[in-house]
Amino acid sequence: MKTEMIALAGDVPGNSIELRVLRFEGRNEKAPSAYLQSSLHGSELPGQAALHFLIPMLEKAEKEGRVAGKITVVPQANPLGSAQWLAHQHLGRFEFFSNVNFNRSFPLLETFDTSKLPEIDAPKSLAERLKAQLLRLALPHEIVLDLHCDDESESYLYIHKAFLPEMYDLASALGSTAVLSWDSTADAAFEEACAHPVLHLPEEQRKARAVTTVEFRGLNDVDVETGRSDAEGLYRFLVHRGVISDSSIELKVDFNGPVTPLENVEMIRAPQGGMILFHVDIGDEVEAGAKLATVVTVPGDPNGDVTLTAPQAGRILTRRSHRYTRRGDDLLKLLGAKRSDSARPGSLEA
Ligand SMILES: [Zn+2]
Asked: Which of 6, 11, 193, 241 has CA 20 to 30 A from 78's CA?
């Protein structure tokens, strides 16, 4: 394994960040290559925990001559966001200066030629240069896994419709309970930027590829056991795709969870601000009309309670981890079987 430190100058003198990039050279040029990154949203750590346990497994495979395809790993993809603290709280989703989500506004390229991306010393903000650098690292790989997490959540995947059903192998390897399928969000998340040039390839070349945002459960699902088992899941997938050779691993592709287009996801939002009392937990299956959450707007007065119900039957995929909400904020995601009346274009979340 080779460790490369890529320094990016800050936007004012005396500041810089370092991107730590781990590289494993593949022994077989024909084997698919893989790129894995974690924590693009600063403090989303389940993916980082998985990589913490995966990297020694990759090193062992390398020592034993079993790394077939090139592998690049960036365990902390966003040192800028990782350093954003305010009033003792970490805030890693939006860049402080621009308020732009770190996982939006990536450049969308028509081909794999990255020569037009802003150079590392371009007269551009650090956030833009960092995004360009991450794309330069990821795009030469056939497999790109961007590891995130939700608030309180089951383990699920975002996958472009063009990669289905081939990518059920990843869902099976990771034990994902659901897939959210999309075709265009126009918000240019990292996943979309990595998928964009792939979608211009002929279908048979596309099939061998995999691009995804992995949502490894919730923010607090960070522990030894989960990290280890997620690392094993990633390893199983890499073996299944031929990036690593390991005859002891056999993957059964048996994913049979819901595959829900984004427009079928009911984003339940708070009609008023207040205290959230959830009636359902993640993984629950509910009928249409079932109580989902009550927003208490006048504590002590039940007349101030606003109870939200399920617009259609489905599965509760995620809940917010906080219990105090603002008007209009997301409360939970319900996976429906039909289009949501409140579906809107773009990503599900800001
Ligand atoms: Zn994220």
From this structure: 241
CB 215 within 8 A of CB 152: no
Query: How far is Cα 343 from Cα 276, in angstroms, rounded to an integer?
Result: 23
Residue 148 CA to ligand 1 center (angstroms) comes to 4
Q: Is the peptide bond before 311 cis (omega within 30 degrees of 0)?
A: no
What number of CA atoms fall less than 13 Å from residue 274's CA on the CB side? Answer: 21
Residue 305 Cα to ligand 1 midpoint, Å, equals 31
Cα(248) to centroid(ligand 1), Å: 33
Q: Cα(176) to centroid of ligand 1, in Å?
A: 16
Name residues whose C-beta falls within 8 Å of residue 189's C-beta, 6 or more positions apart in sequence. Answer: 103, 104, 106, 213, 347
Ligand 1 centroid – CA 41 distance (Å): 5
Q: With a threshold of 0.85, does the pTM exceed it?
A: yes
Tokens 């062992």 sit at which residue?
Answer: 60
Q: How far is the CA of 92 from the centre of ligand 1 (A)?
A: 9
The series of mean pLDDT values per 10 residues for the chain, 350 residues long, is 98 97 97 98 97 98 98 98 97 97 96 97 98 98 98 98 96 98 89 96 91 98 98 98 97 97 98 98 98 98 98 98 98 98 90
Residue 329 Cα to ligand 1 midpoint, Å, equals: 17
State the distance from the centre of ligand 1 to the C-alpha of 298, rounded, in angstroms: 33
pLDDT at residue 207, as a whole number: 86
How far away, in angstroms, is 345 Cα from ligand 1 center?
A: 19
CA angle 2, 18, 143 (to 5 degrees): 55
What is residue 231's predicted lDDT score, i.e. its pLDDT? Answer: 98
